[in-house]
């Protein structure tokens, strides 16, 4: 099932995204595309409970880019955001403060939006408390059965799960180029769509709909490509990673190996995004 042993530790993930909080938004072009894709898919299903005022959760909210978009799509739903990295939570809380008025109902005081610093595998929320569990490009850092089991616990009967995660083929160009340099692992091992489908079924989800697409971002050179990965906190790969710097010669070999992938738009970095919708 899930490739748990290849995951970085929670401490490594938290530290990476804490460091990335200040640089994340400037480098997160792909992450914004995934949010747009997931919102488009969510709009094609029967309105979820969040449309009728049940709370929604942005699980792995990062700096909070999706929160105003979700607030506009579900203006009656109280917003909750959660992330493992404290610096990301701080940024998301500032975003929530700006959208708090969106959730107000005529004649009623809306519940104050909240951002939680929490592990997606053990969230401090009550059973059956959510109408929508939303997560965009966060679950690839988790033990999938635990995270999806937690999502199922939190959703009310008939609630909606909407997730985007990364699958095999993500960073394919980078992995191939690094294979010409050393035998260390430089790319996270991603669960495929079959694993995701089976894990959703095991967690008790129904009406599962999956599809995927490859999104590609281009960079002028290798230095800017590697800097962008670090800027969004995606530079942790877990066991098998190289523990000493490549050095100038190694970077030169990597640049040479990456160059055959160049297109008129620049050096490509591909992400295989898997989208999933399901009912609890």
TrEMBL record:
Residue intervals of the Methyltransferase type domain: 57-163
Top EC category: transferase
GO biological process: biotin biosynthetic process; methylation
Pathway annotation from the record: Cofactor biosynthesis; biotin biosynthesis
EC number(s) on file: 2.1.1.197
Reactions catalysed: malonyl-[ACP] + S-adenosyl-L-methionine = malonyl-[ACP] methyl ester + S-adenosyl-L-homocysteine
Gene Ontology molecular function: any one: malonyl-CoA methyltransferase activity
One matching Pfam family: Methyltransf_11
Alphabetical UniProt keywords: Biotin biosynthesis, Methyltransferase, S-adenosyl-L-methionine, Transferase
Main function: Converts the free carboxyl group of a malonyl-thioester to its methyl ester by transfer of a methyl group from S-adenosyl-L-methionine (SAM). It allows to synthesize pimeloyl-ACP via the fatty acid synthetic pathway.
Family: Belongs to the methyltransferase superfamily.
HAMAP family found in the cross-reference section: BioC (MF_00835)
Family annotation (NCBIfam families): BioC
Protein name, as recorded: Malonyl-[acyl-carrier protein] O-methyltransferase
Organism (species): Oryzomicrobium terrae
